[in-house]
Amino acid sequence: MTTIGPGDPARTITMQDIAQASGVSQSTVSRVLNNTATSVPIAAATRRRVLEVAERLGYRPNPLARGLRGAKTMLLGVIVREISDPVFTVTVDAISTAARRRDYNVVLGTAHSQAEEAIALRAVLETRHCDGIVVVGDMRDQPRLLSDLRAARVPVVILWQGLELAGAATINIDNRAGIASAVDHLAELGHVRFGFIGGDPLGDIREREAALVERLAAHGLSVDPSLMAPASNNPRSGAAAFHSLMERPEPPTAIVTATDQVAVGALYAAHSLGIGVPEQVSIVGFDDIPMAEYTAPPLTTVRQPFDDIAEVAVQFVLDDPSPDNHRVFATSLSIRATTGPPPTG
Question: Residues 293, 196: one domain?
Fold first, then answer.
């Protein structure tokens, strides 16, 4: 007879092993471990013995098997558009923390901005019987994925879609109010010549660019189209865009960027060109990722409440799974050292 002990690499401990070791039926073990209600109560001593044997043998439940039986798997699936984006990295960490408070583990997959990969991930997560799926990032350029998510067999919530998506719960932020706070701050400092460095033209980025034009108009200001610099959402592209803006005959005295990643690149470029921030040009980011307060100088930026967003995302898929759930979060302005009055003379 083979003796099974805790951590035995020979094979996985099963409910049958526990039943044999504790001297009860396998069905009793199942009811105890799954805390299933029974018409005939299980004696406290029996329940205690089963739990002690399960712990001694190192039994670990199989989430897939639980899913096949229709029980909760305690797995939360997360599909991330691009894991290299610091915004998404911070969000995944916050989602994991919120999930752990509910005793859930997170199954993570990154789509690398590829529709085919995202669709494959969705199928894998459903096959693994996750109890819910959180999609992190704008997926409007992937209509097939969105269609599949609407028809998913599990609750789904999509973050930063940039709009309310029919048939799926969504969580967004108030991009217009966030940009308005940045423009108001710079206008109060006396700036009238604004530049904008954008990012990849998805959801939030488009809203932020449009919001800049709208808010400047409210201040009686217009934007020189030559000072609207496109950029990919990374520091290198932000640096290149900053170079192009400062080469203009009349460069801006204030630059609003679509993301902190872009702003970090702009700060790097300013340093390399010997341009003082904020003495010669003020720079404002968007997101308030962890590195923002450690740039040189510390970055003024629009803050997103990542922890609150993650908490509501987990709540939507696990506690209140309805495709009619939509939430828009307010932003705030973190004023640090990259903004000041425009240069005189």
Answer: yes
Can you tell me the mean pLDDT for 296-301? 97
Which residues neighbour 333 within 8 Å (Cβ) at sequence distance 6 or greater? 178, 181, 182, 185, 300, 301, 302, 303
The tally of domains found in the chain comes to: 3
Neighbouring CB atoms inside 10 A of 153's CB total: 7
| Residue ranges making up the domain that contains 105 | 75-174+306-329
CB contact burial 207-241 (16+ within 10 A = b; e otherwise): bbbebbbebbeebeeebeeebbbbbbbbbebbbbb
- Give the C-alpha separation, 171 to 165, whole Å: 10
Give the E-state strand segments of the chain in sequence order: 75-80, 105-110, 132-136, 156-159, 169-173, 194-197, 228-229, 254-257, 282-287, 300-303, 326-329, 332-334
Q: What angle do CA 61, 64, 65 make, to 5 degrees?
A: 65
How much is the mean pLDDT over the chain? 86
Please tell me whether residues 84 and 156 are part of one structural domain. Answer: yes
Q: What are phi and psi of 143, to 5 degrees?
A: -60, -35
Q: Report d(CA 204, CA 183) in Å as an integer.
A: 17
Whether residue 342 lies inside any domain: the answer is no
Predicted local confidence at residue 3, as pLDDT: 42
pLDDT tens for residues 155-209? 889 998 766 667 789 999 999 999 999 999 999 999 999 999 997 766 688 889 9
Same domain, 210 and 280: yes
Task: Report H helices in 219-328.
Answer: 235-246, 260-273, 306-318
Position 27 pLDDT exceeds 60: yes
